[in-house]
Protein: ABC transporter substrate-binding protein
Amino acid sequence: MKRKRLNQYMIVTCCLMLSVLSACSSSTSSENSASPSASSKAENTTTPSKPTAIDPLGKYSTPITITAVRRTVQGQKYADGQSMDNNSWINYYKDMGVNVKYSWSVDATQFENKMNVAVSTSDLPDLMPQITGSQASKLIKGDQLMDMKPYLDKYLSPLAKQILYSDGGSIMNATVTSDGKQYLLPLTAADMRADIKSLWIRKDWLDKLNLQVPKTTQDFENIAKAFTEGDPDGDGKADTYGFGIAGKNNLILDWGGTDGVFEMFHAQPGPWWDESLFYEKDSSGKIDWSGNKPGVKQALSLLQDMYKKGYLAKDFGTADLPQDFAAGKVGMYIGRWWQAGWPLPDLKKKDPKSDWIVVGMPSSDAQPTKPYGYRPGNVYTAVSKNSKNPEAIVKMINWYVEKVYGPNADFQHFNNSDITNNMGDTALAAPFQVIDPYQQAKDYAAVSAAVKSKDPSKLNPSQKPHYDEIQKYQQDPTYVVGWTDWMNYSGVDGTPGKYHFETVQESNILKNAFFNVPDDLMVSKVPAYKKMAEEIMTKIIYNQAPVDDWDKTVNSWNQLGGAEILQDVQKYVK
Structure:
């Protein structure tokens, strides 16, 4: 930018010296016009030219190159004649004057480590999709990222702005720093209803044992007892258990965790990945860490009691829960809306009569539970500070949304034809994705309405396949792919789509008071907290430590950095 201004100054100087102001470009700023002398002011009535209007969708007349890195998924296959460097998206960007060149690509399982190396060595491409909060913190601290705020303000198209700010701006603004800079673009963040937790229960077991969905934690425990002792699968063996925990990887985080049980007691000690914790107002109105609430120990006490009684798997701390699902052993677990796509289809294939119902968390008292919403995303798109054309990233965003969400969108060509993974799902070959935060909710509303009316005429090309799969499932209840779409889009009571995108309203979600990118202190300390919490919770549930040992963990966390982080959050919220 400094060099550009220096060049403008040199042009003006030359023009003054040569007295040929008319040779100056009409698109330069008013700095390029000489100030008239006092004797000529009255004679000079020339109106300065207006700056050239910016076309947010305009192509580059002179091609440029944008370097990037790519995260692949094992089993991905490109269509015949297509490749990572030759597909509809890469060729479209090339037609618009942007040549995308990948510096490297690795499988998703290696991407974070490979990106960590790039961050530590400052070997960065122009475009970095899907960087973590930890990586972002290091890059920002090292002054290695471009502030994209000026380019968003100047180049973002109306449609792209409508999509990215469709939630009122809370998602995009969450990555704006205190001094107004925006180094991170949350392009794939979703409506929080897509990430809240729900309680999944074997409905066929409920029906067989003549049980109702739980409304209280006592109901929850009673159902766990019945699913453990009542032979719900009818094989005459004591081979089922009431509540499944994916303790091997997800003890207090993600699907199969215990986080939903804590929400039954109006608390949430679990971390958001390895980066931040949940903060909310206490009874006095002061911001506090949710792990300090008495509900944490109450939930641990319940889980410990359920383990003693055999309602949990004996080896839950190291168990692989998907295997138990496939074997038909699990009666209830904490899940997410997408679980009908994985891992439940394996059970459905084995036992077509297996059925699930999805509900909210039962409450430990007269106060209804609320879903806890941490943040809408945990990965970001960023641009190197050394990029010569940062505005090109914004224009690529504009072009992307036109082809996916615009009035002339071509879903079949740009979103469905180039690349698939081994599960048969479509995946994008684009260098990065832009997700409408409410797209899943919109698709659910459209498809469920079509199912109800039996009229798919208003569905767009991305929605129609879900409707078609549901029709196939209704004709053939053993068709598992159709069952997944039926669970997600039919709108039938008890399905995950119905609960997450219709029953739950955003206004009813308890949102994290710290709704921002984690800072350096959080990034450096929260992983240690997660390890401490998992260790003590496992011991408590196994009845190898008293519930009160949670207090010791809280004290250790406060000394490690938790108290300081809480003070920072309290200042931030103010």
